[in-house]
Amino acid sequence: QNVIDDIIAIISDKEAGVYRYNLMKPAFPGKIFPEIAFVKYFAPLDWFIGAGIYLEELEETLQQEVLAGIGNIRFGKDGEVFCFRTDGTILSNQNKRLVGRSVRGLVDAEGAGYGEVMLQTVLGAQQQGYVHYSVLRDDTNKTRQKLGFVQLYPDWGWGLGTSMFMDAMEQSIAAETKPYQGI
Question: Which residue(s) pair with 35 in the sheet?
Answer without folding.
Answer: 21, 54
